[in-house]
Design goal:
Layout: H1 10-16, H2 42-49, H3 64-77, E1 81-85, H4 88-99, E2 105-109, H5 114-124, E3 130-134, H6 139-145, E4 150-156, H7 168-177, E5 181-185, H8 190-193, E6 203-207, E7 221-225, H9 227-241, H10 247-258, H11 260-279, E8 284-288, H12 298-304, E9 311-316, H13 319-329, E10 334-335, E11 345-347, H14 359-365, E12 371-375, H15 381-392
Parallel strand pairs: 2-3, 2-4, 4-5, 5-6, 10-11
Antiparallel strand pairs: 1-7, 6-7, 8-9, 9-12, 11-12
Helix pairs in contact: 1-3, 1-10, 3-10, 4-5, 4-9, 13-15
Bound molecules: pyridoxal-5'-phosphate (PLP).
């Protein structure tokens, strides 16, 4: 079986890691739609339940198709262990409930997925787990927020929608000296462009719903890290609480991983071309994309990532009216807040993903009324420009 220890390269691992053929000799990975597994004797059943013999018991715990996905993603992220979850949010929930207890403290980037903010402030807070929010790129802000009770640092880089970046290696060092864990939600880059564990992060979180699937079909997630933290503690929570991935979804994500490198390269190429073109449009005030020379952290993006990714945003002259006009003038691009799809999507953050923030919170987050976010897909770049130029002029 190809694995990272045998020096197989990323593209090979993405296609072959984790596959264990059955006696049927199938070329493509099989789906195992079974809720439980059969034992050859009462003694074997007892040994499995006692943990004295390895093997499947029940699909809330383990499933062969899900395991193939876990092993393949672990190989791509350079992680010892991976547990697949029902969604990206349940990956974050499982991590927090497995590793934190009442009285513990989280330091999190302010620029994270809206539901993650909601999980921290509305639900973990109820359990006595407090979160402080900091400015993603500002290391002194992170340092100042750390307390003796801090157990977890949490971030996404680049951020959505403004593509701010954190220096993962620097924050990993801070986590180490502060005796807490660094978790990176690697949803936007995927391991094809950025490998946080190689940079010193302890935990990687995925919403597999996005680029890992890549074609907008299934909801899923994953947590990656070492054997003790993820293989034991997070897995222990998952098998008990039950937000497990279905084997059907795992199979779709496996097929997604096989084309991940190609797709992330193409997403990045299209996004850079579109960002450069947008920068030249008179009605566009500012473009946010790490691949642009004008991006304040362009140098960091070049060293930390092997590509700049598929997400960009830009500010229009004319505020909300101009933003909505541009969106409504498109005829092809999908008006939806999802991302990481072959189909390009467009959204107005101030009235959708960031619509529940107060005006003051929105200003603090840098979300201008004229801001538009595009998750660039794999259509022809010329067709994307044609679809946008109508609303820009
Ligand atoms: C979508 C998303 C999530 C949540 O994932 P789901 O699969 O929708 O639960 C978490 N983090 C980021 C960065 C996301 O974009």
């Amino acid at each position: 079986m190809p694995d990272s220890k045998n020096n197989h390269n990323f593209e090979t691992l993405a296609i072959r890691a984790g596959q264990k053929r059955t006696a049927e000799g199938e070329q493509s990975e099989p789906i195992f739609p079974t809720s439980s597994y059969v034992f050859s004797s009462a003694a074997e059943a007892a040994a499995r339940f006692a943990g004295e013999q390895p093997g499947n018991i029940y699909s809330r715990f383990t499933n062969p198709t899900v395991r193939t996905f876990e092993q393949r993603l672990a190989a791509l992220e350079g992680a010892e262990s991976c547990v697949a979850t029902a969604s990206g949010m349940s990956a974050i929930l499982s991590t927090c409930l497995a590793l934190l207890k009442s009285g513990d403290h989280i330091v999190s980037s302010r620029s994270i997925f809206g539901s993650t903010t909601g999980l921290f402030t509305n639900y973990l807070a109820k359990l006595g787990i407090e979160t402080s929010f900091v400015d993603l790129p500002d290391i002194t802000d992170w340092q100042a927020a750390i307390r003796p009770q801090t157990r977890l640092m949490f971030l996404e880089t680049p951020s959505n929608p403004l593509t701010e970046m954190a220096d993962i290696a620097q924050l990993a060092e801070l986590a180490r000296t502060s005796n807490c864990l660094l978790a990176v939600d690697n949803c936007f880059c995927t391991p094809a462009l950025q490998q946080p564990i190689m940079l010193g992060a302890d935990i990687v979180i995925h919403s597999a719903t996005k680029f890992l699937d890549g074609q907008g079909r299934c909801v899923g997630g994953a947590v990656l890290g070492n054997k003790d933290i993820v293989g034991e503690e997070v897995f222990g929570f998952l098998r008990t609480a039950g937000p497990s991935m279905s084997p059907f979804n795992a199979w779709v994500f496996l097929k997604g991983l096989e084309t991940l490198s190609l797709r992330m390269e193409a997403h990045s190429r299209n996004a850079l071309a579109l960002a450069q073109w947008l920068e030249q449009q008179a009605s566009v005030k500012r473009v946010y994309y790490p691949g642009l020379e004008s991006h304040p952290q362009h140098q960091l993006a070049k060293t930390q990532q092997s590509g700049f990714g598929g997400l960009l945003s830009f500010e229009l002259e004319g505020g909300k009216e101009a933003g909505w006009k541009l969106i409504d003038a498109t005829r092809m691009i999908s008006i939806t807040a999802n991302l990481g799809d072959t189909k390009t999507t467009i959204t107005h953050p101030a009235t959708t993903t960031h619509g529940r923030l107060t005006d003051e919170q929105r200003a603090e987050a840098g979300i201008d009324d004229g801001l538009v976010r595009i998750a660039v897909g794999l259509e022809s770049i010329e067709d994307l420009k044609t679809d946008l130029v109508r609303g820009l002029s």
